[in-house]
Structures are given as structure tokens and as C-alpha cells.
Amino acid sequence: MIVTVILFLLIFGLVVISHEFGHFILAKKNGIRVVEFAVGMGPTLFRYKKGETVYSLKALPLGGACMFDGEDGMTAGGVPDEGSFLSANVWARISAVVAGPLFNLILAYVLAVILIAFTGTERPVIQSVVPDSAAEAAGIQAGDRITEINGEKIHFGKQISLISFLNRGETIKVEYVRDGETYRTELTPVYDSAAGRYYIGFMGYSEYYRCSALEVFRYGFYELEYYVGSTFKSLAMLFQGRVSKDDVAGPVGIAQMVGETYESQKEYGFRYVLFSMMSITILLSVNLGILNLLPIPALDGGRLVFLLFEVVRGKPVPPEKEGMVHLAGMAVLMLLMVFVLFNDISRLFS
Questions:
Q1: Average pLDDT for consecutive 10-residue bins of the chain (350 residues)?
Q2: Which residue numbers are catalytic?
Q3: Collapsing DSSP states into helix, strand and coil, what is residue 350?
């Protein structure tokens, strides 16, 4: 239990700090004062002030904050002073807002490169084909390397797994390479009533591949691309109603996932635990980056909408009105966080 908590806090801290540091460094570069750099939410456990910024650690691992002077629209005498968020030009403010999610993606890419450098990767090579399956009928054979599905470039076996899992019986266009020649075919997954899902007919679709020194950078990008794509696909499923409340996890659910992963890997040694935790960190960092870019009030994406509107309009939305929108958005997000937290705890005792 203690190990799980420590690992969760380390992962959470790294993901949040990278996000807030992105905001922090771009704000500083553009002359915007940072009032507080906080990790966590709620009561303050530790605080340290250096220069104009308070660095604090909060009690609840539910996020973090990099608070700019004047970002809430409140200014003395109604006139933003030099160094406040509102006094900076619009592109400086845009860069400071976007930097948080961008740094999450940078962190994920760096970790992906390190992970692939040490562990290699798995290319999408078919190991065997299920007899009388859609794949066999389409002419696909063991040893074929899948290169494209429905126009999406395929670099890893797990991409095939995700596409298969999300398929609802739609015809799939497949491009593959056999003996150096490229072939194209189509197949329609077959429904398995016992499993309640459609299957393509591949039995094993990954082959271990050790990347060269330069290839790790390319495959690191492919890894980042995969996680970004899977995040958007998950969001699409959420809006389509294909995701239940039990498929959504908050801090408690994530901690539980960290604990289960640790328990399953600890017998293999520190190396396997470390690489597994890095994979979870990549997933969470990408998710945090993408979710924060959604055009929802109080999130970075919501602030970005107002800033882009200012670019088009030529003048900003009145700060007090924007502040009210973000305040309402924050209230809704707090309610959502409470719901997710309650759902996480309920699952622990179910």
C-alpha cells in the first residue's frame, strides 16, 4: 500500500509539475508575473516564496496551478499594471496558456524515447490467423506486416488491438507487406456473441523489434502519436455513450491501476516496475495535455477560446465576464471531480 502511494505521488507529481512548469516558463519569458506555483489542491502543506512567486504543495493530489497576476480579471483601479497577465500581448498570453499541455506532450515523448531505447518495441506482424475468420477470407497470412488500416498508418501491434476493440462491424481496409510487396484488401469483422464484440481474426499481431539509435526518436514519436490518437478515440466513445462511468478513473482509480501494475511486475524486478510506471506516466501525461486543451471553461482550452476570439475580434472579452464563465466552469469541474472520486471509491468496495 505504501509503495503504491509513493509511486502514484511520484507519477502524479511529475505529470503535474511538467504541465505547470510549461505555463511558468513561458509566462516568465513573456514578462508575466507568476503569483503561485502549486502542486495539488486544497490545504497547503508546504510553501516557499522566492522573488514574486510562492511555491506550494497542497494536500489533495487532484491537480495543480500556475497562477498569473491578474488572470482572474481583477486589477487595481480596473487598469492592468505592467507584468500582469492582462497587460501582456495576446500572443504572449496564448503561449503561456498552451505551454502547459505542450510540456505534457514533450514529457510523454521524452519518456517514450527512453522506454523504447531500453525495451525496444513491437511491430505489427501477424503471428497467426484464425481459421475461417475474416482475416483468412481476405487472404492475410502469418508473417504479413500490417502497414495501414482505414488510412491510418500502423506502427505497433497495439494499434491493431485498439482498432479491433472499437470496431462495430464496419468494413476494414487493410494494407500489408509480404515478401517486400505491398498488398491491399478489405475484411468485415465477425461478431462473437459469447464475447459480445467483433473480431478481425488475427491471433497475435506483434513482433519484437529492437530499434537503432536513431530509430528510437522516430518510434518515440509514433508512440506519442498512438497515445494522442487513443485519447481522442476514447473521448469520441465518451460522447457517443460507449463509455460507462466505470470506465472513467480519477486519482483513486489511477492509484489503484498503479498498485495493480506494481503487484504484477514486482516479481520480475525493479527494471520491469520502472518501465511499467513510465508507460503509465506517458498515458497520464498525454491525457492531461489533451483534456486540458478541450474548449471547456476553466481549462486551458477554455481560456484559449477567449484568447483566439480576442485575436479575431481585435479586442478582449471584458475580463469580468470571462472570469464569470471560468468560475462557472470551475464549479462544474469540481462537481465532476467529486462524482469521479465517489465512483472510484465505490469501485474499491464493489
A1: 89 94 95 93 91 91 86 58 86 96 97 96 94 92 95 94 89 94 94 88 91 94 94 80 64 82 90 94 95 90 93 86 84 79 70
A2: 20
A3: coil
